[in-house]
Amino acid sequence: MPRVGLTTDRVVAAAADLADEAGFEAVTVSALARHFGVRDASLYTHVRGLQDLRVRVALLAGGELIDEIAQAVAGRAGKEALVAFAGAYRAYALRHPGRYAATQIRVDESLVATVADSPAMRRTAEITHGMLRAYGLGEPDLTDAVCLLRSTFHGYCALEAGGGFGAPRDVRASWDKAVDALHVALENWPREERAAG
To answer: What is the DSSP annotation of 63-127?
Structure first.
């Protein structure tokens, strides 16, 4: 491909596609340069390096994921919202394994503030917290519940994608049961007493 028309958005989108096709670890500046038919140096006007490229893929994927979740939970509350949230999360993780892997990367300390302030991260927090507030949760319980949901969803999706479930039980049936159990846990959350001011 000619370098004419090469933009940061095109580079990041191509990196996200490569992640889904070959795995997130296969995303390198050299691999993208080969894809576009240019020298590695040509891409450095669009990304600062591999870490910058991978963080940009993570932000792209995070935005796509939360858009799908937002659409799924719109107009729903309580268990219905939780089921929709979980279903959209799992569907995205299985459909876009490389993009999903990008959302799990550890971000370099110098980029933490940039990532945390990104529109995708803010929207993720708003939608997730909004769903959990319907269960009557406030801080610090809200943060603890987010940790529970994320670890359950991510663990399940990672195991499923890697073929880690060998039991004869249908994987989807187990997923549905896990989401039911999360709903029960959220409804009966052991709330932390706030210290009197």
So the answer is: HHHHHHHHHHHTT--HHHHHHHHHHHHHHHHHH-HHHHHHTTPPPPGGGHHHHHTSHHHHHHHHH
What are the distances in angstroms from CA 24 to CA 31, 44, 141, 197? 12, 20, 33, 48
Within the chain, which residues score under 70 in pLDDT? 1-4, 107-117, 193-197
In the chain, what is the greatest distance between 2 CA atoms, to the nearest angstrom? 66
**Which pLDDT tens digit goes with each residue over 133-178?**
899 998 999 999 999 999 999 999 999 988 888 888 889 999 999 9
Q: What does the alpha-carbon distance between residue 14 and residue 20 come to, in Å, rounded to a whole number?
A: 10
